[in-house]
Amino acid sequence: MKTQNMLRLVFGAAAVTVLLLTASCDDANNPSALVGHWLYESGYKSRKPENIELFKDGTGICDGHPLSWKVENKRLVLLASIAGIAADYKVSGYRLTLTYNDGDDERNATFVKKEYAETAKGAIIAAVKAKAEKVKKGSFTDARDNKTYKTVKLDKQIWMAENLNYETEGSKCYKNELGNCQKYGRLYNWETAMKACPKGWHLPSESDFDKLYNFVNDGTFYADGINYGDDYLKATNGWAGNGTDDYGFTALPGGEGDRNGNFYSVGSYGYWWGANEVGSEFADFWFLSSSYYSEPKNTAFDKTNLYSVRCVQN
Questions:
Q1: What share of the chain is helix, strand, coil (3-state, %, to 5)?
Q2: Closest CA relative to residue 274, chosen from 244, 246, 310, 240
Q3: Rounded distance, CA 229 to CA 219, Å?
Q4: pLDDT tens across 202-261, in order?
Q5: Is residue 272 classed as helix, strand or coil in its secondary structure?
Q6: Higher-confidence residue: 64 or 138?
Q7: CB environment 117-130: b (16+ within 10 A), e (fewer)
Q8: pLDDT (mean) for 47-53
Q9: Which of 79, 101, 6, 103 is nearest to 48 (CA)?
């Protein structure tokens, strides 16, 4: 699976390096818009600057290291004693985004203005609480084996609030241990997953996952110190990095299996099949990780892989 690599920032007292920051059209010629204390927000924090402060007199501080800055040709130029990186920045309102290339892929780190973070934190937590109070919890009994599952209504969708644990050919317990099925549900290849949900329920489409994500995220910017959308969905235990489970979805990291009988990532990743095919050999799945903060991701992989299933009511 793809994971974010750490941004390699090494502070030194040797040569001066120029960092180029690309401003938005509104802020490009307005240095005052860039003044402020910026807090690091997303991805791995290790070895990335967690604070950048820019002052009106053209000086600043980056994690305790002095710098100077200016706006020139619609670019903000930072001069600092930083070795090993040259990066572009985008500035838009209260967001500051560092974009860099680690040699393989383009990656980024996002900062938020401290004053916005402080103001937004309480408002966003209140908004999450208000939405959580409207969530309707219930239960459903699968007539095929009489297993009862918790359910949760998020906006207009009704989801199973547990991973499916219906035993059928093409499904397995993680490492073939029954206790893992009882805790995480069963793992299914895609062909089996497409038929595994009980009558009246279906394997989620890409649209279903999008609606879930939009309900959780609803376009809100999550500032420093505030949980991201994945944390609202993840269970409060069972993860290497637990969530807050504000909406009762209780996502669990059931890991995955492959066609050769190998199993991986229980406790660290949760993978759920989607109904959309991508060519003849691949299909969509959705995943959450405990290794870094991010929104839920949707991608595609080999249909023979074994992933969890969450069913949505028709």
A1: 20, 40, 45
A2: 310
A3: 10
A4: 999 989 988 888 888 764 444 444 445 678 889 999 898 888 899 999 999 999 999 999
A5: strand
A6: 138
A7: beebeeebeeebee
A8: 75
A9: 6
